[in-house]
Amino acid sequence: MTALENRPTTVDFDSPEHQARLADLYRDFEAVGMTPLWRTREGLMPPHPQPKAVPHLWRWDDLYALAARSGDLVPVGRGGERRAIGLGNPGLPGDPYATPTLWAAIQYLNPREDAPEHRHSQSAFRFVLEGEGVWTVVDGDPVAMRRGDLLLTPGWHFHGHQNVSDTPMAWLDGLDVPLVAAVDQGFFEFGPDEVRDKRTPDRSNSERLWGGPGLTPVAAVGARPQSPLMAYRWVHTDAALTAQLELAAEGVEGTLVEPGHAAIRFSNPTTGGDALTTMRTEMHRLTAGTRTRRSRTSASSVWQVFTGGGTVTMDGEVRTLGHGDVVAVPAWTEFSLQAEDGLDLFTFSDAPVFEKLSLLRTQVTEGDDA
Amino acid sequence: MTALENRPTTVDFDSPEHQARLADLYRDFEAVGMTPLWRTREGLMPPHPQPKAVPHLWRWDDLYALAARSGDLVPVGRGGERRAIGLGNPGLPGDPYATPTLWAAIQYLNPREDAPEHRHSQSAFRFVLEGEGVWTVVDGDPVAMRRGDLLLTPGWHFHGHQNVSDTPMAWLDGLDVPLVAAVDQGFFEFGPDEVRDKRTPDRSNSERLWGGPGLTPVAAVGARPQSPLMAYRWVHTDAALTAQLELAAEGVEGTLVEPGHAAIRFSNPTTGGDALTTMRTEMHRLTAGTRTRRSRTSASSVWQVFTGGGTVTMDGEVRTLGHGDVVAVPAWTEFSLQAEDGLDLFTFSDAPVFEKLSLLRTQVTEGDDA
Amino acid sequence: MTALENRPTTVDFDSPEHQARLADLYRDFEAVGMTPLWRTREGLMPPHPQPKAVPHLWRWDDLYALAARSGDLVPVGRGGERRAIGLGNPGLPGDPYATPTLWAAIQYLNPREDAPEHRHSQSAFRFVLEGEGVWTVVDGDPVAMRRGDLLLTPGWHFHGHQNVSDTPMAWLDGLDVPLVAAVDQGFFEFGPDEVRDKRTPDRSNSERLWGGPGLTPVAAVGARPQSPLMAYRWVHTDAALTAQLELAAEGVEGTLVEPGHAAIRFSNPTTGGDALTTMRTEMHRLTAGTRTRRSRTSASSVWQVFTGGGTVTMDGEVRTLGHGDVVAVPAWTEFSLQAEDGLDLFTFSDAPVFEKLSLLRTQVTEGDDA
Amino acid sequence: MTALENRPTTVDFDSPEHQARLADLYRDFEAVGMTPLWRTREGLMPPHPQPKAVPHLWRWDDLYALAARSGDLVPVGRGGERRAIGLGNPGLPGDPYATPTLWAAIQYLNPREDAPEHRHSQSAFRFVLEGEGVWTVVDGDPVAMRRGDLLLTPGWHFHGHQNVSDTPMAWLDGLDVPLVAAVDQGFFEFGPDEVRDKRTPDRSNSERLWGGPGLTPVAAVGARPQSPLMAYRWVHTDAALTAQLELAAEGVEGTLVEPGHAAIRFSNPTTGGDALTTMRTEMHRLTAGTRTRRSRTSASSVWQVFTGGGTVTMDGEVRTLGHGDVVAVPAWTEFSLQAEDGLDLFTFSDAPVFEKLSLLRTQVTEGDDA
């Protein structure tokens, strides 16, 4: 072994001789697959998140038109499984990922068409911008999909979809596919080719059992990691947002995120935590003219305009928002929303993952210069 | 110090001399307030719970008639605070306690009458057998009280009641008064003489904020020990019980406590646990002819018939059950219910206390000889 | 039903006629075991805890002398189970309880004497003021008892004691007997008449498995309500208290409860919470001259002087403290300690019960006038 | 919109015309960054984890020799920060990652050399195969590094290293760098160029405060996400492993993972959970001749031989194991170990991440044909 004090202090690190020895070392490193931290540290350990993903906006009209064209050209069936088209972040070329952890897709089902059953460790939800007529069958429980609803498919639940109507239907699919892929946690299994229960009830079994506010079936008491409630209906979501704003107007404190900004989180009634373990799902409402605080969070998120219009500002760049538009917000992007006449947005993010790992950070940047 | 081996093995423990020394010792113990375990162990540490409280049943007609008489004779006001009459278990003479941990009372409010505001560390709820017209105002939030509803007043929330109708109203009050008294945790504070908000809204603020199934206000995210939802409405409770039975009839598994026996637990949406920290509250429904398993639990409970009739069997003694009747079930009482044409019962117990302390035990005794 | 507005406003509540009707009512209440809140509210719901238990101090010399006398006169055996003498609070006559929830007793075992095995739902610990030579056998695991050690017997663990030495040994037993009795949670079962393992190892199995700091056996991973570690040795307790004071002297912040006051809590390594579910156990050390803040808590506690001397002040009354003295502190007693030349005290309380029920309150009263 | 029933059933999906329209569609998808699931599903959602990372083994002699050469050629200083050389999995070319979530590196410090202070959201630990003389200073607390010790640097704690001896020292660094990079959670900040406390105590402050088994400082009570104990000493680890095997030999059940296989998990004394939020750290000991069950887990892991030798079998391929050798085990690799004369191994994995997300799966494959 070589003691430092024995090293001649006259070593000339810039000498050609030294450089040659160094080159040898790096070559030998490479041969055994070793990488010196001192040559990569800055990239590996940035001062704050520097995502490859970029802020991005997709227009609903574009998404829908393309999905409809695929409805004409591509059948749904075993193997491909779904007529779902993933939104690829331009900063992540080659990967159909909205952010490094989140998959967002538009799924399109023709009239009288079925998507076969399967299950996977990835968790999923559907958010319905418009339309109805499709039932998603989750572990044998047919769940109606209607405008404004959030429908869950927690990990490892069998699910298929059937359109019983005479019109096509499209919706937003959200999954943790990129996260699960990045960390090698994917399991997948085929189910029946046809959904196992063709009934089309107004309320799913899960709603009948778990849909009473604060009511737990005694037979099913106990914490579960994922929500047993598979549908969060728009009528309730809308009422809750309306109530928050009304209560604030009546002088009740602590009901709003900030003035003019109501929001609800879809949660797991058995724990009070997020409905899914890997994704946070929320609905936000901004009153006319409201502009949210500028802030950053280390979570990445996707937003979809449900109703109304306005603008989104991401790292200083302003984009207009219209019906159905989808926005990807990478980690640590400075973000704010502004409503024109009123703006309802659905959003999902990977925040619960980082909350559980004590990694989540959030920073209000309002005070900074924009 | 005295070593055992020095004691003459010829000691005669029954000798008058020994008995005299023993009497001296016991007298000296008493002088300093000491009690030998060997003389009290059996009483202190029974093989299983041997409550002083006894199984007991109060007839609603008796309770209501007496409450109504007090409505004529006793005003409600500051100091006495409430026209509430506690049900005293015959096994606990002198104490107005239904069981060693649970207070059950009938409260009666005359037309246009108010009960002044106060708060206490004891948690409380009201269960409404019949009638309407009263609002309980909880921390400034007026909560309508109507037939079949469960209304909460978690510990240290200010609350008062006002009857805005032209008829008297009576209901069941449940509190953890005996538990809190036994362990010296009582704090009490007077509030305004009149309820601070005289409005009579159909839905309380707490319901507007927290009453959406699985919907959490983002501004109020986080676990709370007690439920933020102050009212559990009969319409939801009834629907949930109906659904459990229907689903079971449709072949869905795991929805019932046992065949013919549906039950919901009122829970805290921020945790999924019991709505109150010290009391479990549930609603049970037995279909016509259903007889529950005989079982014992170390929790004590109180039951009130909401609708229907049948019988209760406690430690082998059968009693008929009719509308409004109240039953006290001490710890480790063998207990079962039988429905005649159908039977809905509200119940509360101290089970959450013992669950948290790892003391709760339950035993199905079906297999035993009845 | 009687409507208030129909009551003649001219009713004279003080009239003999009214008083007679009221007396009738109260008699009828009594007949069915009902108690009006308005006549008992003040006693049932005090403004703050008003325990019947009183602050009390027992001298170790008295306790030990009496225990030793019982060693001569009373055998240990099946039925009586233990030569343990409970300290009865003068405010709770008839009950051998130090506080309404805590049992404190001196247990005395003659040389070569055994106490038979049993188990109970009540949790227990032993704290050893002085001496050694006894092994407590917990679920078959012999645990040495030595000066300064805390030994656990969580609920429903079989346990017996054997003295293998030629000298008697006495120690402090702490249990939740009064709490468990008050709420009817007692279960008890006899075990073998002799301890099942007569070995006298230096370290118990539980210490060998669980005694490494931060080391969890992979085969036994998972939260348990009670600690799996049955012995907390004085050598570690002493070192931790010494370190807290040294670190504070070195300028490290956050190591002391207050200046001159070190304290450790005996905890459950599988959760980080209290070692027992119903009792908090701690060791405190005050440096010479240190006087603690005056404070009240709704928990009740028992303290025993381990080494040193000083004074305790309870609700303004000052008592001197010497070796082995035991103090009962009821809920909401204003309490402070003052050390003469240094003072080590063991303490246990019912605080975890009330923490879990969201009932615990603590108030520093330093600023108040004493 | 196009209704399915209007589509001519005579469509020929294989016709050149259809193929052309499809090509158009795919081109248009690409233009807006959309990817059809049906063309990527199999890759995105495999039937079980199909990691790009491969099972791999690095020889300690190779690692050490290269690290020592870099000790001669490369100074440690601000910017590069550490003379740490990351082990790159051959299946993940270009990334210096042992698995998709875990970073493993050999760090080398010359005699009398310092590594400057910094902090980062990534959590880290050091495991010491051999040598001593270095202190890692964690948030101002100098922690000695010695053979067999595990030293923690939880996320966002400042840390630097100093070698006060006359010999170089090398050790294994483990971090969650790949996970944090994949999900954009990296924050980094420089600290002082020299470690802020040059003292070289035998025990760190964290050990003095938190190193007593089951002893919690009252001043610091409460759950923390990461362990406050910065050093887990070999003397304790070794004793715990020895005890598990001895106890099993004495007939105590439940102490071993499987016959001949002892293991401890380094845990957070404030919660009983893993010492770090993102990485599980354990020490395993196999007695001579012991062969572990074959199993797979969806967690990925890295193992380092501490003492002894044997073989590792990964997906059927057998490799010999010697002193200091490092093994990377991707998710779902069938894995088993066999000891020759006895084998001690340190291991770390990403299991806690997936446990928290309800994604972790484990499968014993013993019964399968190898």
Automatic annotation (TrEMBL), chains A, B, C, D:
<keyword id="KW-0223">Dioxygenase</keyword>
<dbReference type="InterPro" id="IPR014710">
    <property type="entry name" value="RmlC-like_jellyroll"/>
</dbReference>
<dbReference type="InterPro" id="IPR011051">
    <property type="entry name" value="RmlC_Cupin_sf"/>
</dbReference>
<feature type="domain" description="Cupin type-2">
    <location>
        <begin position="107"/>
        <end position="173"/>
    </location>
</feature>
<protein>
    <submittedName>
        <fullName>Cupin domain-containing protein</fullName>
    </submittedName>
</protein>
<dbReference type="GO" id="GO:0016702">
    <property type="term" value="F:oxidoreductase activity, acting on single donors with incorporation of molecular oxygen, incorporation of two atoms of oxygen"/>
</dbReference>
<dbReference type="Pfam" id="PF07883">
    <property type="entry name" value="Cupin_2"/>
</dbReference>
<dbReference type="InterPro" id="IPR013096">
    <property type="entry name" value="Cupin_2"/>
</dbReference>
<keyword id="KW-0560">Oxidoreductase</keyword>
<dbReference type="InterPro" id="IPR047183">
    <property type="entry name" value="GDO-like"/>
</dbReference>
